[in-house]
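Z., the sequence and structure:
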Amino acid sequence: MTTQTAETTVIAETTQATETPQAARTAETAQPTQAAAAALRTATRATLTIDGRALSYLDFGGTGRPLVALHGHLSEGASFAALAAALGPDWRVIAPDQRGHGDSDRAPEYTRAGYLADLEALLAHLGIDRAVLLGHSLGAINASHLAARRPELVEALIDVDTAADLPEGGPSPLSFVLGFPYTAPTREQLDAVCGPLAAAVGPVTPRPLADGSGWRLPFHPQDTVDSETLVHGDHWQQWLATDCPALLIHGLRSQALPAAQAQQMVTRRPRTTYVPVDTDHFVQHAAPEAFEAAVRTFLATL
C-alpha cells in the first residue's frame, strides 16, 4: 500500500446545530432510532478546516473521558448516535465524518496518511491527548494505524468486525456504487437509489448542493471505491504494535472477518477481549443492543 506524509494546517472552525436524518426502521429497531434522534438533537456539529478542506464532526457531549468513533465506508459520524445515547454522559462521544463522507469535503487522496493526518488534527484541535478509539471497517483500520503511530494518544481500541489482513486483488466489493449518481435534481431520486443500503449500513442521507441546484450523496462513488481499495493489505503490524486494552466485536456471519482470523487477532495480541455477536459485518446496525452492551461492558473495565 502506498502512503505519503502530509502537512496539516488548521485554519478555522464553525459550529451549527445538527439535523436528525430521516430513515425508515423496523419495529424492532424503533427504540434505538428514537434514542439516536434525541442524541442528534443535543449534539454539536462543528467543521474544522484543514488545508482549505472541511472536516465535519459531531460532539455528543458528556463529562467523561473521550471516545472517538470512526465509521466505515458508505457511512458517517451520525451512525454512532445510538451508541452515544447508550453511553450517556459518562463518555464524551466524538464522531467525525471522515474525509469524503457525510458533511466533510472530498479529498485529493484517501491514503492512510491522509486519514491519520485528519484524525491527529482533530484531536489536537479538541485538546484531546488521550482517547478510546472505536472503529468499524475503514474506521477500525484507521484506528489501529493511529494507535501504532501515536500510542500515547490511545487509551484503548475497539475493533468492530474488521480484519487485520484484508486480501488484495480483484474488484472492490463496493464497486456496485459506481453505478450510483453522485448528484440528482431531487432528494427522492437519491433516496430511491440508496434505499436498499439502509438495511445494512443504516441511513444514507443526501445533502443539498450549495448552489441549490439539487442534491448529492454523502459519499462519492469513485472516491469510495478508491478508498476501499486502499484498505486492502496486511495490517497485522499495526494491530500488534500496541498493548493497550482492546475489544474485538465479531459478527459471526461477517462478510469481512473470517472466524479463524478473529481468533488469531485475539490470541496474538495481549489484553484483547473477544465478543462474538450473531450477526453480519454491520454489527452496530444489525444488532445495536448487543453492540452497545459489548462496548459498555468493555469500557467499564478501563
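Residues 253 and 280 are 4 Å apart (CA to CA). The first helix runs from residue 30 to 42.

Let me know what you think.
H.
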